[in-house]
Write a structure and sequence with these properties.
It is a single chain. This protein has about 60 residues and is α+β, with helices and mostly antiparallel strands. The chain has a domain of about 35 residues. It contains two helices and two strands. Strands 1-2 form a two-stranded antiparallel sheet. A hairpin with a 5-residue loop joins strand 1 and strand 2.
């Protein structure tokens, strides 16, 4: 187990994500976020693009 100290802003963001996901498992939310960050960094290192596409087809580039 690792203990992490969060500032107020990070704590509020984490709490909001937990509410939106309907979970009290904050560590699970952090793990998911770190997984996405890892994917974005790996994609960028490989010179590829990582893009989120919403239901309307709007794209948001995450890594390039």
């Amino acid at each position: 187990m690792v203990e992490v100290t969060l500032n107020r802003t990070a704590g509020e963001l984490l709490a909001r994500r937990c509410v939106e996901l309907g979970t009290e498992d904050a560590s699970g939310v952090v793990i998911r976020a770190l997984g996405l960050l890892d994917l974005a960094q790996r994609t960028r290192r490989q010179g590829e693009r990582l893009v989120f596409v919403n239901e309307r087809g709007d794209e948001s580039e995450v890594a390039w």
